[in-house]
């Protein structure tokens, strides 16, 4: 195919030209790029065009920027193909899928040490961003009910979170008119750890978000310690502030690799937890979960009873129709791996992360921020004063020529002068691939160190990669 063009050519050409090998007699040899074609094409032709366009995407296994999983075994692929047509919202037509959804969040409630897993309540979502927003909505509504019951104003709610929080929480506060109170991280307090929390909490605080696996660096925020500080605040002021744990990554790591770490429903202030099934839950993209400690933690007026295709069903979601296949894939993995299987997969990723971080720590060019002993994610910075010839952005660009995607980006407010580079180790990054990566890093550092003058900075791409 010659229709997959990059750069200026793709902007100038309004048509996709077909290779004669893939066109049939009577078919057009060119198809419009940005408008609907006037006639039909053979399925083989349409497939080949889309297939060839998608070839320009990167190699997912070499993308060490994303947390999102990209591989499932052949039986999962088969199940996915068989069930992609199921509508998750239509519990009347697909009662078995609905029952499996309930089974999954009860399994998660048990995994996260809910006092009574049978009395938890939860839902599947498109991803952890939707799950986080549902958790935030429940916090806001609970606060509103309590304020009204006390005859107090429900204006100006606020949410306390780390300055290193994922962007979905900024969206939540923006979309639902909640003031975001960001606690800045620093070199002394690399995560939200309860330090000076009393300066941010007041009677309008709907909750505190604790992140189990900060997106910037992969480090855990100490939920139990944050809760202890909130206990002190309550003793001094009477304010009873709940915690939502954003476990987008860590909620599917900690139960297996750090089972003694107290971060979940064992902490009484934790009322809800979200996670990404398509991250370390190991499912294809498109699935998240949120679970509440018990039914009292989710206000009833947020749950709708919908009459749909002859049945009544409860629903609490921002989305409506969506494929049910990912939910079935999650249950498949629960059955396929069990606790021991998840432990082995996550431990293999962590072992690779510790190997990589250990080798990078030995390099004289870098200062390690963390080592991947929380979730298998770690970051490092360029040693201050090491060189004026290149930056981590240049190293990222050099590694991209080898196919590796390693993001470089500035840290949050108050640390924005510090640039870090990060690696996310996911299932599929083997020890051998990691060794190849280290070889490429050393090769590109040698190239950059040998420069006689500084690299240009004008065209360097600076941005945060989720």
Automatic annotation (TrEMBL):
Chain residue ranges for the region called Disordered: 1-39
CDD domains per record: DOPA_deC_like (cd06450)
SUPFAM superfamilies to which the protein is assigned, alphabetical: PLP-dependent transferases
EC annotation from Swiss-Prot or TrEMBL: 4.1.1.15
Keyword Lyase: yes
Any one GO molecular-function label of the UniProt entry: glutamate decarboxylase activity
Protein's UniProt keywords contain RNA-binding: no
Source organism, top-level taxon: Bacteria
Matches recorded under Pfam families: Pyridoxal_deC (PF00282)
GO biological process: L-glutamate catabolic process
Required cofactor names: pyridoxal 5'-phosphate
Keywords: Decarboxylase, Lyase, Pyridoxal phosphate
Catalysed conversion reaction: L-glutamate + H(+) = 4-aminobutanoate + CO2
Signal peptide limits: none
Cellular component annotations (GO), alphabetically ordered: cytosol
Modified residues (N6-(pyridoxal phosphate)lysine): 279
Listed Gene3D superfamilies: 3.90.1150.160, 4.10.280.50, Type I PLP-dependent aspartate aminotransferase-like (Major domain)
Family designation: Belongs to the group II decarboxylase family.
Protein name per UniProt: Glutamate decarboxylase
Annotated source species: Oerskovia enterophila
């Amino acid at each position: 195919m010659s229709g997959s063009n990059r750069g200026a050519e793709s902007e100038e050409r309004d048509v996709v030209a077909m290779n004669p090998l893939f066109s049939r007699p009577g078919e057009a040899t060119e198809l419009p790029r940005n408008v609907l074609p006037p006639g039909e094409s053979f399925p083989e032709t349409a497939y080949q065009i889309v297939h060839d366009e998608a070839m320009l995407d990167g190699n997912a296994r070499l993308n060490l920027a994303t947390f999102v999983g990209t591989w499932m075994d052949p039986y999962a692929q088969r199940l996915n193909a068989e069930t992609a047509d199921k509508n998750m919202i239509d519990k009347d037509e697909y009662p078995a899928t609905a029952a499996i959804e309930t089974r999954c969040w009860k399994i998660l409630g048990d995994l996260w040490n809910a006092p009574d897993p049978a009395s938890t309540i939860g839902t599947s979502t498109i991803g952890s961003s939707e799950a986080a927003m549902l958790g935030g909505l429940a916090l806001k509504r609970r606060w509103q009910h309590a304020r009204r019951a006390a005859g107090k104003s429900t204006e100006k709610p606020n949410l306390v979170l780390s300055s290193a929080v994922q962007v979905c929480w900024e969206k939540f506060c923006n979309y639902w008119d909640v003031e975001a109170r960001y606690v800045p991280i620093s070199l002394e307090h690399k995560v939200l750890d309860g330090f000076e929390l009393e300066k941010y909490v007041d009677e309008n605080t709907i909750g505190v978000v604790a992140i189990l696996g900060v997106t910037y660096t992969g480090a855990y925020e100490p939920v139990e310690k944050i809760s202890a500080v909130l206990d002190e605040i309550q003793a001094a002021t009477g304010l009873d502030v709940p915690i939502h744990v954003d476990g987008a990554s860590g909620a599917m790591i900690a139960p297996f690799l750090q089972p003694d770490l107290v971060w979940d429903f064992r902490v009484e202030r934790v009322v809800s937890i979200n996670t990404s099934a398509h991250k370390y839950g190991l499912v294809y993209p498109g699935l998240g979960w949120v679970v509440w400690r018990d039914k009292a933690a989710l206000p009833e007026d947020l749950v709708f009873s919908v009459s749909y295709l002859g049945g009544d069903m409860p629903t609490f979601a921002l989305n409506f129709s969506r494929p049910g296949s990912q939910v079935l894939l999650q249950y498949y993995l629960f059955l396929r791996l069990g606790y021991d299987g998840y432990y082995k997969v996550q431990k293999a990723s962590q072992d690779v992360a510790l190997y990589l971080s250990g080798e990078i720590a030995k390099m004289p060019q870098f200062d390690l921020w963390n080592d991947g002993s929380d979730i298998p994610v770690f970051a490092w910075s360029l040693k201050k004063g090491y060189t004026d010839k290149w930056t981590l952005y240049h190293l990222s660009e050099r590694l991209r020529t080898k196919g590796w995607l390693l993001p470089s980006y500035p840290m949050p407010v108050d640390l924005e002068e510090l640039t870090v580079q990060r690696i996310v180790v996911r299932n599929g990054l083997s020890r051998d691939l990691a060794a190849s990566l280290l070889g490429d890093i050393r090769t590109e550092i040698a190239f950059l160190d040998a420069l006689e003058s500084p690299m240009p900075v004008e065209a360097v791409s600076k941005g945060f990669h989720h």
